[in-house]
Write a structure and sequence with these properties.
The protein is an alpha+beta fold and about 350 residues long. It folds into 3 domains: about 100 residues, no CATH class; about 110 residues; about 90 residues, Winged helix-like DNA-binding domain superfamily/Winged helix DNA-binding domain (Arc Repressor Mutant, subunit A). It contains 12 helices and 16 strands. Strand 4 and strand 5 form a beta hairpin. Helix 2 crosses helix 3 and helix 5 packs antiparallel against helix 7.
Length: about 350
């Protein structure tokens, strides 16, 4: 059987593996509760609790926690996404709305202690942001990790995420096409300047109506930042004023430090926290907005883009004192990396992992 196989047929949600002591866990599927072959699912909306099951991947769990029989349910490709949410040593399983309703009596406590997980769950209940929950999450991050980390989450993770998710929802099934995934990276450009975020949208995505953009601007305003949207007649380069600052913004390559974080996020999203170098190169664009310069062919590796060479260097240059291995964030597996507990903790400090 292929590692990634959409033809496995009907499966049952039989258990989960803990990612943290509270919040979203990793749902695990099998043909029956007593199965010895297990699977994880891929969502049509990566990173969210909504959408549907797009496919299944065979998976070897390290510490499977079985669900009680009454929570086991059958599902398949195309059906609503299923999650497992942990709180006070209780597992809540089902769709996002089902879990949300089951948490009714403890939801205020969850919002106080684990707002990032609750916010992710809330997005699967209603695509319209819960402004109070969003503001509480931003305040929680500010108190726990400081203003700078909270603003990084606000700009790079949350606001960027709701904009891209809005585009994917509008595109529906077309969003899964390879050319559209590339375009989302190349033709929607974000520029941050103090308390202002400028979003340059390529003409391919000019179908956004004013009401949708105003709603996103309202969410940004509730978090203390002004959002403006510029529909471009060209597809890639935003028409900023031709200054030296523009060259630094538009032409720059993504830094190696940003690529390290993206590589850790790829590993954190995969079974056992492991990702091969090839998987890192193929999936890093899910977590970092690649620039035009990133995609220029490497001079030393003709079959790779510059960003793929950087990822390869992160893995191969293991003696560097600034690398993810030296910092204890990942272990070398022989053909890639495995994120450590320290690596997951580092992502949490950045608001990138819960």
């Amino acid at each position: 059987m292929n590692e990634h196989d959409e033809s496995v047929g009907r499966l049952e949600l039989v258990g989960y593996e803990k990612l943290t002591d509270h919040g979203l866990a990793l749902p695990v599927f099998g043909r029956s509760p007593g199965a010895n072959v297990f699977y994880t699912a891929r969502s049509s909306e990566p990173g969210g609790a909504g959408g549907h099951i797009a496919s299944f991947d065979q998976y070897d769990p390290e510490a499977l926690v079985p669900l009680p029989r009454e929570q086991i349910r059958e599902t398949g490709v195309g059906e609503p996404w299923l999650d497992v949410f942990l709180w006070d040593d209780v597992a809540y399983a089902g769709t996002a709305p089902e879990i949300w309703n089951s948490l009714a009596e403890v939801r205020e406590r969850v919002a106080e202690h684990s707002p990032l997980s609750l916010l992710a769950l809330a997005e699967g209940v209603d695509p319209a942001p819960d402004l109070q929950l969003v503001q509480n999450t931003f305040s929680w991050l500010t108190r726990r990790y400081g203003r700078r980390k909270a603003e990084e989450w606000r700009n790079e993770i949350y606001l960027r995420g709701i904009i891209l998710k809005s585009v994917r929802r509008e595109l529906s099934a077309y969003a899964d096409r390879a050319e559209i995934r590339r375009a989302l990276q190349e033709e929607i450009f974000f520029h941050y300047d103090d308390n202002k975020i400028s979003v340059f949208i390529g003409s391919r995505f000019s179908f956004f109506d004013r009401a949708s953009l105003d709603a996103i601007a309202g969410v940004a305003a509730s978090l203390g930042v002004k959002a403006e949207f510029i529909i471009q007649q060209v597809r890639v380069m935003p028409s900023l004023k031709p200054t030296a600052r523009q060259d630094a913004v538009v032409r720059r390559r993504t830094s190696e430090s940003e690529m390290r974080i993206a590589a850790l996020r790829v590993a954190a999203s995969r079974p056992n926290g492991k990702a091969t170098t090839t998987e890192l190169k193929n999936e890093v664009d899910r977590y970092v907005a690649l620039t035009t310069e990133d995609r220029i062919p490497s001079k030393t590796r003709p079959n790779e883009a510059m960003y793929q060479q950087i990822i390869g260097n992160i893995v191969s240059h293991r003696g560097s004192k600034n690398n993810i291995f030296a910092k204890g964030w990942a272990k070398y597996t022989g053909d890639g990396i495995q994120i450590t507990d320290a690596g997951r903790k580092h992502l949490r400090t950045l608001g990138l992992h819960d």
